[in-house]
Amino acid sequence: MKDPEQTRGPGGETHQTAGEDHPAMTTQVGMPISDDQNSLKAGPRGPHLLEDQVFREKLFHFDHERIPERVVHARGYGAHGTFETTESLEDLTCADLFQRKGEKTEVFVRFSTVAGSKGSPDLARDVRGFAVKFYTRQGNWDLVGNNIPVFFIQDAMKFPDLIHAAKAEPDRGFPQAQTAHDNFWDFISLMPESMHMVMWIMSDRTLPRSFRFMEGFGVHTFRMVTAEGKSSFVKFHWKPKLGVQSVLWDEAVTINGADPDFHRRDLWEAIQSGDFPQWELGVQVFDDDFADRFPFDVLDATKLIPEEEVPVRKVGVLTLDRMPDNFFLETEQVAFQTGNIVPGIDHSNDPLLQGRNFSYLDTQLKRLGGPNFNHIPVNAPRCPFANLQQDGHMAMHNPRGRANYEPNSHGEGPREDPERGFRSFEAREQGGKRRTRAESFADHYSQARQFYRSQTAIEQEHIVSALVFELSKCDIEAIRARMVGHLRVIDDHLAQAVAEGLGMEELPEAADPARPVEKTEPSPALSILANPPGTFRGRKLGVLITDGIEAEMLDALRDAAKEAGATLELIARTVGGATLADGGRVAAQEKIDGAPSARYDAVAVLASQAGARRLADDHDARRFLADACAHGKFVALTPAARDLWFETVPQEPDEGVITLDAPADATRFLEACRELRFWSRLG
Length: 683
Ligand code: HDD
What we know:
With 683 residues, the chain is an alpha+beta fold.
């Protein structure tokens, strides 16, 4: 290649041409392009010439760049990683990936929100998708789960109605990415089976601090099957090693404006910095006897099995350690399918799962444009594969040789493998063909009550506020009343608090449950706050700095944050940063109005006397501190910055506010941060 040269446009602007550092630009068919700035014209001011194949190809391709977004879970973010088996499950399943302790399986994971379109903000109050593609030696296994262990509906027949009701209303085209509107609550209040899920979606679970701090669930009951055909039921769980954490609604509202990509950025930064997020895979395994004794139907996706009844056995670790090279190629084109299972894993008769098995395959045709979407590298298996499927749009792997049929006498082509091949579990089925719902699916309230009663007082308050917020956005009074009628069956205090929040003068009539509500014991495992992670690892500290601060204090905070496994971001009045007392200069990552304290897990303000006075005049700096206090954050302040507190915050500093008198206080502060929030300030 020759050295780069510069060409000049008519206004003197420069364009670098191909050389050592840049390969020659070509058309799709490899023809080198001489000029990528100007289309071919008849004369300098003349019309375009139709023969300009370079222009036509470029625009043709651009015009066709978009593919349909996913009908649900359109907004998502993916990463590559590995799954390591930490305990062999050979007694339960012949699935190859679970046979050997230490076995590593490549995975691709995509997290998502459900209702919003591709460009919607990350912190919408919504369920999160947690879809994992395992590239096993026996083919791809897709565990397409959510961060909530139950679902809205019992039968896939109602899925289109659910999604229509949740998404923007069809006449007006809004609201976007939220369920706070009449259509959603109209549908939900007419579907008592959704009440358990309603408790979950109105809880802090739908406001995860990031993908790294949320659980995942396979939701359905699946089967694990041994080579001898012995089957056990199984529920899959993902447990984040860093613990579960959520943001407050008020933080979510601010973050959606300041950083709509909050969750994407978090995953990107963690993986790029080598802080690889991990989850343990857990299984709840049970047999037919347990299933028969369980008061609810294990095939009903609106029910969970409390961990206190069947403990979660940890069997592997998922580590995400590589971002895709290209978002579209992998994250956008990845196609998950519940139908992708491997020998040793099987479906149950859960009617939601059975319906999903149709929908996921079907939807890929629309989205990816043809039957060969598994030829796209992110979807292709990593193990050898061979079959006689051929042709179709964009075929890359047609069968080779003469025989593209089986049986054939050419001695060519792949053959079935009775030894290694997938066999369905031989379930015995009986009964007439009917459109029906099993009687055992009829209790819609008991687990909703159990969930609510398993929450701490703070979490219950959040559920109340979320319901009040959402229902206040419903114009139709009858819908609000119908919902509160359901809440009366779940819990009196909940119904009353919501009715009060909605300004109802009297409680509406209670719903009439088909089955008496069971007095189930609370399940502490269902609460986030009752199971604190006790670590600040993986969290982010926001440090607001001014000119004139001591380098020693900043270094002490940096060291303490590093020691705690947290990251630290500097914020200043300009991204230029600040001049330290010793004359040194530090750059900031953020300017104060772009970095509200809601974006951080804890904050510090390092200010000199003069710096604190300037901050006191700055609306964004005052809001930074006032919000940190209002959100129950741990706050560290240099003595001068305490003055800012007194000017900004209408309450005395409490034990969650730590003064940085000496560098050693930085460690004390980071230790306090392990609690994540100083809840008593909010109580
Ligand atoms: Fe679904 C996508 C999770 C019920 C139909 N679903 C999708 C994704 C996740 C889930 C995580 C995104 C996958 C990705 O990242 O590409 N869905 C669930 C869970 C459910 C569930 C946990 C209940 C337990 N889904 C469900 C039902 C149906 C669908 C009942 C239809 C009968 N889901 C789809 C879909 C999507 C999808 C339309 C849209 C894009 C895609 O499949 O690939 O087919």
